[in-house]
Amino acid sequence: MNFNNILTEYYGGITTITINRPNKLNALNQDTINELHHAFKEADLDEDTKVIIVTGSGEKAFVAGADISEFADYSVEEGEYLSANGQKVLFNFVENLSTPVIAAVNGFALGGGLELAMACHFRVASDNAKMGLPEVSLGVIPGYGGTQRLAQLVGKGRAMELIMTAGMIDANKALQFGLVNHVTTQNELLAFCEKIATKISQNSSVAIAAAIRAVNANFQDGVDGFNMEIKEFGKCFGTEDFAEGTSAFLEKRKADFPGR
């Protein structure tokens, strides 16, 4: 599929998706959200892709927010649909992908940009990154899962403060809060993410997908995460990856997982 607002590149089991609207600081408009949905879906269905990295083009921003000009005149009903559809098409979709997604946060990740980063399975930031949810300064609240995921990642009190003040935190504060896993220089950011992705790709993609489902279950209403873990653990015993992994361990060799 041809894209206007994003770039995709595959190399060595890793698909890198780059949001490419540098003149808009990579802001998320509806076309970009839809393109991202298709790009993530294509990568997730590609058996050769073991890890997805998402980042922003240029040196200033990962994603500096949503494109406010698109919804400034929306009604209550239109606003509710905007939030519900965005969560379905992109943010919840990314969170529940079977393929691990790493956010390489280069520069500003504000509003919808931070919400996209938080929907990814984990985050690595460059040392110039700035993160925040400034929506209340516009008379609205985060609508793409930000009120939920930020509290899950950093705790209720810190999430309340960040949202209420509409403030930004730097990469080191984000690391301290547990919002990001690592901080690197901007020049090293993608290489660092690729190094982690390579380590991930050497393991069972079937088991990793099961782990994603089990971890996510803990944050779903009405779902018993422990029970989900038991079921996913049991399912692993019926996979070719389990047979290969255990055989390789017993035979003292490196596993060659078929991904089934």
Gist of the model:
Helix content is 46%, strand content 17%.
Describe this entry's structure for a reader.
This protein starts with 5 loop residues before the first strand and ends in a 10-residue tail after the last helix. The longest helix is centred in the first third of the chain and has 20 residues, at 76-95. With 260 residues, the chain is α/β, with parallel strands linked by helices. A six-stranded mixed sheet has the order 1-2-3-5-7-10, sandwiched between helices. The protein has two domains: 6-201, 2-enoyl-CoA Hydratase, Chain A, domain 1; 205-250. It is 46% helix and 17% strand. The radius of gyration is 19 Å and the shape is globular. It has helices at residues 30-45, 76-95, 112-119, 146-154, 156-165, 171-177, 189-201, 205-217, 225-236, 240-250; strands at 6-11, 14-19, 51-56, 61-63, 101-105, 108-110, 122-126, 130-132, 168-170, 182-184.
CATH architecture of the largest domain: Alpha-Beta Complex
- Across the major sheet, the strand order is 1-2-3-5-7-10
The succession of helices and strands, N to C, reads EEHEEHEEHEEHHEHEHHHH
Helix content: 40-55%
What is this structure's SSE topology?
Layout: E1 6-11, E2 14-19, H1 30-45, E3 51-56, E4 61-63, H2 76-95, E5 101-105, E6 108-110, H3 112-119, E7 122-126, E8 130-132, H4 146-154, H5 156-165, E9 168-170, H6 171-177, E10 182-184, H7 189-201, H8 205-217, H9 225-236, H10 240-250
Parallel strand pairs: 2-3, 3-5, 4-6, 5-7, 6-8, 7-10
Antiparallel strand pairs: 1-2, 8-9
Helix pairs in contact: 1-2, 2-3, 3-4, 4-5, 8-9
